[in-house]
Structure formats: C-alpha cells, structure tokens
Specification:
Length: 204
C-alpha cells in the first residue's frame, strides 16, 4: 500500500470541504512503535487547530495506538475502515501466516496475530466501519468468523469504548472506493456518529 489506494476517498473528502494530507508508513521494515512515533511527528506539522484521522485496515490500528500512547490534543474524530482491532483469525491460519509475514513484516506479528487493541477511554471519538462482503483471501480459510469482509471478521473490528460502529456491504478493499463508506466517513467527521437509519440505502 502506497497511499494511492485512498485517492478516491481523499477526493470525496476534499469535495466536501476538508483539506487532506496523506501519511504513509513502512509496515514491513519499521516496527509499529516507530510508525506511531512518526505519525505523531507528522501531526505536529499539520495546519489548523483540529485534525481528523481516517485510516484503512492496519492504519486504523496505528491510529488507535497513537491515541493510547500520545493522546494528542489536536486530534478530533477518527474513522477506522475495516481494522483488525481484535487481531485476525484469518492471518493466523497456516495458508496465510507465511504470506502475512512476507507482506506486513513486524506489523503483522505485532498487530494482526498477537496483540490486537485494548479498550481505552481515549477512543470515545472513534468510529469503525466494518464490511460483510466476503470477497478476499480470508474466505478460503476454514475457521474465519462470519460475517466478514473477505479478510477481517466483523467481530474483529468491534472494540469496547469506541463511539460508533457500522457494518456496510463492502469488502476489505472495496470499502476504499465505496460511496456509501465515503458518505459514512463524512457523516462521522461532521457529527461524531454514523447515519444508521438510512445506511442500507446509501449507494456503494
């Protein structure tokens, strides 16, 4: 992942009036603590009095790790897209564990298989979007939990202490281009909650 996969979401956020800045990190060659430190330094150079955060998959875990370790006062609302907050059963399965180590390096060992994220009160402005469209390598792992987004189970995205949680009909990667997901991100950034009443009618 280079950050280019979030281009369409950034474009939609800009069209809605938000300024966007991209943070990229090395999941394979740098350990999660170092990436968290780099994210904290990145935020120090952001303009404005308040900075919202939006991250995909392990990026969501990284953001919550930032909140726990640094509790930055300038951070406003945080949206995590399909994050493995409770680890990932799929990543522990033998067919995927080898490739997970190769693709994610130390981040896979630290977040996906061993630790997960502990509940904290600092997550009160955090919203989580999960997916239930099971398209991805995880669907071929026998003991993966359902429903899931093809990689991460919905239950693995739930965490005590977060402000709001919603499940959309998206996969682990289609969430990045989903208009429904973008609309929910915008709603949470503006109001601090997702639009549950009509989420089923939003266009993917």
């Amino acid at each position: 992942m280079t950050g280019a996969e979030l281009y369409l979401l950034r474009k939609r956020l800009r069209a809605a009036g938000f300024r966007t800045f991209q943070f990229s990190y090395q999941s394979r060659t740098e350990n999660p603590d170092k990436n968290c430190e780099r994210l904290a330094a990145f935020l120090e150079n952001m303009p404005g009095d308040r900075v919202h955060l939006v991250g995909h998959s392990l990026g969501g875990v990284l953001m919550l790790n930032l909140l726990e370790r640094y509790q930055p006062v300038r951070v406003g609302r945080v949206v995590c897209l399909v994050p493995p907050l409770k680890g990932s059963i799929a990543a522990q399965a033998p067919p995927l564990s080898f490739f997970g180590n190769r693709l994610l390096g130390s981040s896979a060992a630290y977040f996906v298989r061993e630790k997960g994220v502990a509940p904290r009160s600092v997550y009160q402005q955090v919203g989580v979007i999960a997916g239930n469209l099971s398209l991805g390598v995880g669907r071929f792992v026998g003991d993966v939990l359902y429903p899931n987004d093809g990689t991460i189970a919905v239950k693995e995205t739930e965490l005590q202490g977060i402000k709001d949680h919603i499940v959309l009909h998206v996969s682990h990667f289609s969430v990045l281009v989903s208009r429904a997901a973008a609309n929910q991100v915008l709603h949470f950034l503006r109001f601090g909650s997702f639009f549950h009443e009509s989420s089923d009618s939003l266009t993917n």
